[in-house]
Specification:
α1 crosses α3. Helices cover 41% and strands 18% of the residues. The strands form two sheets. Strands 3-2-1-4-5-8-9-10 form an eight-stranded mixed sheet. The longest helix has 22 residues. It is α/β, with parallel strands linked by helices.
Length: 227
């Protein structure tokens, strides 16, 4: 007596039996979601997994890739909003770099909408109240320019762990304005970029908010939700 097929095997068999021109419609039904796709590094690994509110997506992606890898990647990476916000902020590395290193250059270039941590600002040694763009912050901006060449929507999340100089009642000086202007300058180098959204955990200084809006960034200080 034949064993019943597992759901994954049934899905793969159904896709293989379809004509190639029907793959796109079914792939969109399986792989595209209106909710953000969260990116998370697998334990003790350089690999990343995808999930939508605790529901993993990598198995469905792998099945579609086995049938038509190019079409599956094109739909998955270009049609979803990815949340690659750093789970642990340091000054030496970022989850964005690790994520883009994990992807092939082709898949990175397909990304159209992504959330990342706001580029880190830090003080130079001996200048505790003068924030400037950190090396890892600049690295993230350069990665977006070189790897995400079709990026249309960028969401920047300001978290307590890296809100230096941006929080309410923080001193607003020329160095901070210069740093934010540098962030804006680097973002404008992404020719495909249409929208920048800043979402803030906690209180953003009103002067900082005004400055950001002057760059034509959308600023949400009421609550921090992906949508």
């Amino acid at each position: 007596m034949a064993q019943p097929k597992a759901p994954a095997e049934e899905l793969k068999a159904r896709l293989i039996a379809m004509s190639p021109e029907n793959h796109s419609k079914v792939f969109r039904e399986i792989l595209v979601t209106l909710k953000p796709v969260f990116v998370s590094r697998e334990p003790n690994s350089s690999k990343f997994g995808y999930h939508v509110f605790s529901v993993p997506m990598q198995d469905a992606l792998a099945i579609c890739q086995a049938v038509n890898e190019r079409e599956a990647n094109s739909i998955f990476y270009s049609s979803n909003h990815f949340n690659a916000v750093d789970s642990y902020i340091t000054r030496e590395t970022s989850d964005l770099k690790a994520f883009l290193d994990f992807l092939s250059p082709c898949c990175s270039s397909l990304l159209s909408s992504i959330s990342i941590s706001f580029p880190i600002l830090q003080a130079e040694q001996g200048q505790s109240q003068e924030p400037k763009l950190s090396p890892v912050g600049m690295q993230c901006l350069k990665l977006l320019q070189t790897s995400c060449t079709k990026l249309k929507t960028l969401e920047l999340l300001v978290q307590p762990s890296h809100s230096f100089g941006l929080a309410r009642n923080a001193p607003i000086d020329l160095r901070l304005k210069d740093s934010l202007s540098r962030v804006n300058e680097e973002l404008r180098r992404i020719s495909s970029l249409e929208k920048v959204i800043v979402r803030c955990f906690g209180n953003l200084d009103p002067e900082v908010e005004k400055l950001m809006k002057g760059f034509d960034w959308e600023v949400d200080t009421d609550q921090c939700k992906p949508y």
